[in-house]
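Q&A log
Question type: sequence-to-structure
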Amino acid sequence: MRDMPRSLMLFAAGFGARMRPLTNDRPKPMVEVAGRPLIDYALDQAANMPLDSIVANTHYKPGPLEKHLADTGVQTLLESPDILDTGGGLRNALPILGDDPVYTLNTDAVWVGQSPLDLLRDAWQPDAMDALLICVPVSQTLGYDGSGDFQIDPQGRLMRGQGHVYGGAQIIKTDRLKDVDQTKFSLNLIWDLMLAENRLFGLSYPGEWCDVGHPAGVDIAQARLAQGSV
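Response status: OK
Response body:
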């Protein structure tokens, strides 16, 4: 197993229930922000990464997304008949992604600042970490009204709590996935195992992050992008 990830998983299979009615006729990654589908903002983060493969899982209304990605080099993987959630979806893609650690990226956010994947690559320490998550200080979020998912200790280890929201980007080792006896499961299950062994780490994002998982987030993201990088 190589220490550095060379593959990226884009989570793109969800039903987009929070985004309705914009997802009535398309999957959430094809909802447009400032004239571009959300999936393109995710691909921007990987533009300069040395990757061997990029996989996007699909399920809900997959046609428009598959057509959009057809000439990009991104492989699409249909989850059928059932959607598999993040953990099951990642495990389903491992024949393409390989056994090395992988990047994963949600496709319902807009980042203002350095690519989260670049930051993860530079901070990854495979001897100490089983996963490294980009976490955004709540004060640096847009379109998000929660209190956060995690706290980060001085050594970078994560604890469940308030203050930082998971931004949807990580490096994760995949060996634990094979031991889960469920077909559909969340990566939270894997994170909890890592938390118990002090192997789950977080990196505080220095820029801004916009939650575009709901219709209001589209307007917020468009307004922020119109301001440029400040």
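Response note: The first helix runs from residue 38 to 45.
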